[in-house]
Amino acid sequence: MDPSALLLSSGMAVAAGVVGCFAVMRRMTLAADAMSHVALPGIGLALVLHLNPVIGGVAMLLVGAVLIWGLEQRTGISTETVVGVVFSFALAVGSMLASGEELIDALLGKPGVVRPTELVFGLLAPLAVVVFLVWARNRLLIALVSPDLARTVNIHVERLNLGFLVAFALTVALGLRYLGVLLMGSLIIIPAATAKHLAGNIRAMFLLAVGVSVGSTLAGTALASILHRPTGPLIIAVAAGCFFVSLAWRRPA
């Protein structure tokens, strides 16, 4: 793996670890995995138009984030339910637009030559995600505990939720090349779930989640080059292995 691709995959892993902590605390475990599938129609449409699939995936994820947020605000239905409906529709449309080997690459990812636009996006997007979540972490935590309390201290909960969904969408987009729409949600959730039952406080949870995410990405990439196997599944296998091993050190309830 060339140095630029390794740098981008590490940035993706850092963003996934941070976003995953908030997703786990918001009980978006299943919704997080489903939301990554929203990229599929964009990828399929980009392939039909002979464009870079990552561009289509990013565009569709951002549109999906705004759509999910709008439906949640208008209907009062939970984020998990709205994401599930949008996911099902996106999966159906995406499966019709992409087929064969192209569909497999979209679902599982396929590392390749990094283009200049992807390099810029891969460097700026994780930085933007991490900066936003660090800047908004206290408000996000207050809104998580009590949205009503958050409003009384002049926190714009709806705007904050939109910001989080956009950050989540950008994080998923970062992993499309390496993990595809099927596996990126797993990298967001598994390291955070591992850190949640090991960490004694919020700060430690973030650090552990990022450590597991980056470590799994680097180890999975190295194993893929040694075993000549697809990178994405090995990254997730390593992350899942960390989760199961960590159960032996689980903190007492």
Give a structural overview:
- The N and C termini lie far apart (42 Å).
- The protein has one domain (3-181): ABC transporter involved in vitamin B12 uptake, BtuC.
- Helix 3 (39-48) runs antiparallel to helix 4.
- It is 83% helix and 0% strand.
- With 253 residues, it is an all-alpha fold.
Continuous helix count:
12
| Total domain units | 1
Estimate what percentage of residues fall within beta strands. under 5%
Low-confidence stretches: none
Order of helices and strands: HHHHHHHHHHHH
- Name of the top-level CATH class: Mainly Alpha
The CATH homologous superfamily name equals ABC transporter involved in vitamin B12 uptake, BtuC
Helix- and strand-based class? mainly alpha
Count of distinct strands? 0
Main sheet record: none
Rg, please? 18 Å
Assembly form of the protein: single chain
